[in-house]
Amino acid sequence: MDSKIIDVHSHFYPKVYIEILNKKGFIKYEENKIIINWGKRISPADFRLIDIEGKLQDLKKLKYELFSLLSLSAPWTYILPREDEIIIAKQVNDEIAKIVNKYPEYFGGLATLPLNDVNASIEEAERTIKELGLNGFIVGTGIGNKTIADDEYRPLLKKISQLGKPIFIHPGTLPLDMILNEGVEAILTSFIFETTYVITKLALTGILRDYGLTVIIPHGGGFIPYQIGRIDLGSASYSLGKFKPSDDLKEFVYYDTVIYTKESLELLIKVIGEDHIVFGTDHPFPVSKPELFLKLIEDVIKNNNTKEKIWRTNANNIFKLLK
């Protein structure tokens, strides 16, 4: 385990969740892929999204060995009525925990929470960490018309902070009706915007520092590294807070390496710093290119200590995976 690269961004849909998507007509099967389609959103994926044995074999073909933290992806359980969501979220987490227990050398897991009910989410957060032994939480950018940055979720965030586990904020459910009329093309930019919007809101409101939260965001942090100066200037110009949001965006937030060019990786390291970057793959979606992400790190980073931080040390500091 201590020689493996930790992948913080890896998706899997347990059987109970696939059954829900089937019932709602949100999933279609084609010859070599599945298509998840909810509302105006379309997201193609490889069959390894629902086949853990196939996913494991796929990962074993890589040049490096990975330890992958499995998480649900959009649309999560927020599409369900409150009572149903509470039941299904528990079942999803139980299935993830069974996979982790079966393959402890390959997989960890992030819990999904029934976010239409804050009290139930608090209970499930505690259960998944203390009883199931999962490693943190996956939270979608949109919860109906709300976000995790809204005041009603503060009690939950306080509980998560007390549990000492990170939140991975992932795009896919923030309402963006006009953009989403474009279909599958929309996810190329809407996902990046969603992440940027929610994490900026968490920083501007002071929630990150209020609870000392640890948050991971995917896709290299969306627009954050490129426009972090604008966020600081806007906060000062409009008197949105008494501190620089960039301080919190660098202290409490970790950024994954699901980016595709040498220049983007160099910018991320320069702006955010090597201590807050973690490796991710987004497996098994079409935009997942594990070999490319690994090669970029090899090509861009010549310092072995920096490479070690991004591949293992930073993620281990968050998740406490190595004993």
TrEMBL record:
Domain Amidohydrolase-related positions: 6-320
GO term, biological process aspect, one: secondary metabolic process
Pfam families for the chain: Amidohydro_2 (PF04909)
GO cellular component: cytosol
Domain of life where this protein originates: Archaea
Family matches, as InterPro entries: ACMSD (IPR032465), Amidohydro-rel (IPR006680)
Gene Ontology molecular function: carboxy-lyase activity; hydrolase activity
Protein name: Amidohydrolase-related domain-containing protein
Species, as recorded: Saccharolobus shibatae (strain ATCC 51178 / DSM 5389 / JCM 8931 / NBRC 15437 / B12) (Sulfolobus shibatae)
Biological classification of the source: Archaea, Thermoproteota, Thermoprotei, Sulfolobales, Sulfolobaceae
